[in-house]
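Dear all,

This email documents one entry for the complex benchmark we are building for the journal club exercise. For each entry we list the sequence lines for every component of the assembly. Then comes the predicted three-dimensional structure of the complex as a token string, followed by one or two observations. Please use this as the template for your own entries, and keep the labels exactly as they appear.
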Amino acid sequence: MSKDDTQKDLDLSDIDKIIHEPVRLSILAHLYVLDSADALFLKNQIGLTWGNFSTHLKRLEDAGYIQVHKEFVDRKPVTSYRLTDLGREAFQQYREQMSGFLKELPE
Amino acid sequence: MENIDLKEIERRAYLTYHKDGILDIYLGMGIMTLASVFFFEVFVSTGTSGIMVLLPILYAASKKQYTIPRLGYVKFSQSTMGRARNSVTLALILGSMSAIAGLFAFYSVLSTGINWIEPLIVNWKITLAAILLVVFSLFGYVSDLRRMYYYGMLSLILFVSGMFLPIPGYMLILAVGGIISINGITLLYRFTKEYPIEKGHENE
């Protein structure tokens, strides 16, 4: 690997700040492997209190990374979240960036 | 990020969904229903078939009643759903095959007197214990639910003990089913404590 490539991997200035936050990263990681889930399931899996959980969901929704899906399950309204193509792409890119960055750190 | 284990996240979500013990309750009830077949000495009766058909319906209804309001609503990916479907299919195939093989062996001995099957029927408790151990282990492997291995071991221990104790066969099957169901009820109780219904946040 050339010196330029190494420098590029160590540069995190263009890292996606929306994803680079533990709660939002965890939400995206869950929605990456699940088809869809509601806020309660995500909250339970991530192990958080409600706090500003919905603010994080809104932030991801505004960025176009997740979409709200409303449906009726057994005549009860269910609001679930699903990862968009943009969100999937952004998450993959983030993983690659972080992976490259961590690989270049000395032991 | 290198330390995000996506497979583990998916696995944990799947296991949490089955942490409620509902599967165990109805699995145990199914086994207890089979015990009634031995007790009444009939292979197929309307009541038994009716209960067996009813169990999956009750399972789905219980999931909606207890799990979803507490844990939340989730749809798993196609691969996870495929694994769940494989587990159920495997359990049904193995269960049916064991029943058919048992009947076939029984009638073979009656009609032809094939020698090698006879010990399997004479020592039916060990045969059944081995079948249950294999079925539970395979079910545990495919479904990733570790407690299924323990149920397999439990069946083995109970049936082998049953060889030395004057207990009727149906009681052993009833005991296996009963213990599994009781464990399921305990898991459900713990689940409801761990995930209480949060007013105002159901299916948020």
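Observations: The beta strands of chain A are 34-38, 66-73, 76-83. Chain A has five helices and three strands.
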